[in-house]
Write the structure tokens for this entry.
Amino acid sequence: MPHTARPAQKSFEPRNPDWEATVRGSFARQTVMTLIGAEMGALAPGHCEIRLPFRADLTQQNGYFHAGITATIVDSAGGYSGLTLMPAGSDVLTVEFKLNLLAPADGDYLVAEGQVLKTGRNLVISRGEVYAIRNGHATHCATMQQTLMTMHAKKEK
Amino acid sequence: MPHTARPAQKSFEPRNPDWEATVRGSFARQTVMTLIGAEMGALAPGHCEIRLPFRADLTQQNGYFHAGITATIVDSAGGYSGLTLMPAGSDVLTVEFKLNLLAPADGDYLVAEGQVLKTGRNLVISRGEVYAIRNGHATHCATMQQTLMTMHAKKEK
Amino acid sequence: MPHTARPAQKSFEPRNPDWEATVRGSFARQTVMTLIGAEMGALAPGHCEIRLPFRADLTQQNGYFHAGITATIVDSAGGYSGLTLMPAGSDVLTVEFKLNLLAPADGDYLVAEGQVLKTGRNLVISRGEVYAIRNGHATHCATMQQTLMTMHAKKEK
Amino acid sequence: MPHTARPAQKSFEPRNPDWEATVRGSFARQTVMTLIGAEMGALAPGHCEIRLPFRADLTQQNGYFHAGITATIVDSAGGYSGLTLMPAGSDVLTVEFKLNLLAPADGDYLVAEGQVLKTGRNLVISRGEVYAIRNGHATHCATMQQTLMTMHAKKEK
């Protein structure tokens, strides 16, 4: 095995011309994002970032961001990375995700990045990474693997 | 294979005589639980329940509890089921969890149950179930598998 | 919270009158089961067991069953627990699974049990347990959470 | 959020001067690798590749590599990526892994790559990718997230 096998890099073509408005509109309806103070950042086909400033009311027993809060933003980042590629009129549903916590989520803010790995007719597989930023230095604090389902609009079923 | 093999049912002996005060004290320091309105319920060696009443500011785009909020309470329920069995002075850390969402988390309140499956010197494996309760009827809406680490007190290392 | 919320116990109705022949026929075409010496055991709607006698050529570096072999039988047990409930003519595909290894898979044989938790139109969620049996004593050595997809027959799409 | 936060790229320093002989020796004792015909390929600190040629006795009901066989090689690739970084005299144990199947494992051979994400005193977190190669073209067919435990040698405990 002289060198590592690699697939061609995928680029993703959105099927919904209004993908960005669709995703930002859906995010705005996630009331929990307002509660915790999360903001949507960069958005591209197959990619989504969510940023969350530190607040003392988002923590676990040692004063770090609670793992469930980390999960909240990375689940949405992964889900919306998928929604960028779904047909107009459809919605996204998380089937499952698995989150490894690599380091304490201790920082001035967190950045969660969702990235689509694979799209199918009904299922989308994505990955998420979470970084804790302190004084401009990023610590990789969590990594996620996620399965999403496309909820097709009634008319196109 | 005439019948199903079954291991003897495990019962768990706490090693920390103050396990209940330890767990309830730690829960009280998880500020995010106050933010979302979660309450600790039944607690027993190897078992922990957390209850979360519905609020309109805890939802995703369709008005159900956000998967991250479901994750927040079941991660803590699983983690505290483990802490009931850890030595005095130690703390619990989530290494990873995997959550399958079985049905929309749509109810008057959620109940998350954490249950220890296996304890080792450093690691504890637990399971979590989440039920959405509407008019007294429970829907099983999520199931979790989780790995926890015991953070031993300095003195006993 | 005076007592634990519990959903009504589910019983599963097969939609394929030939579910047992379908499942046993599919298992017989999994050539890897013959290679490793696995046998299908008890089968019921939503439930499947697979048994694997110890062989010295199935091990990892310490002489226990390799985790991948444990995964092989529990993935099939979970998958076939799902196939018992799928429509005639459809096939089952594993979307993903997560396996926690609880104890060394050290025994005279392994028994893997798959059990459906939830069925939907396209997806089935199941759980798996693996026991290592030594002199009639069972050790719970692995637990799995799994997502399956129904591959519908062409005609019913 | 003008640009994506990224941690510095990690490079891994092995603590065992004989890491390569240790890993290749351990692989040689995994009898199941001989049974299925798997070979260890490239090895570097924090990285391990395993290659598996197609054989008709490694398949599921449709003639593709069985998901458990995919799991077998990627679990070992991930585990050995971790063992390259563990102290002399220690052994590696898989705590858990989660595998998403992205495409049928249909090819002339499979290549599984394990890569360490994070090392700690007792735990190592790794990722695995599996590619199916057909006529030199690689299809990304599975992705894994894994938690490993270092089994320290008795003397250094």
Remarks:
- The radius of gyration of chain C is 16 Å.
- Confidence is low (pLDDT under 50) at residues 1-5 of chain C.
- Residues 18 and 137 of chain C are 35 Å apart (CA to CA).
- Chain C touches chain D at residues 26-27, 29-32, 34-36, 56-62, 66-69, 71-73, 75-76, 91, 93-101 (CB under 8 Å).
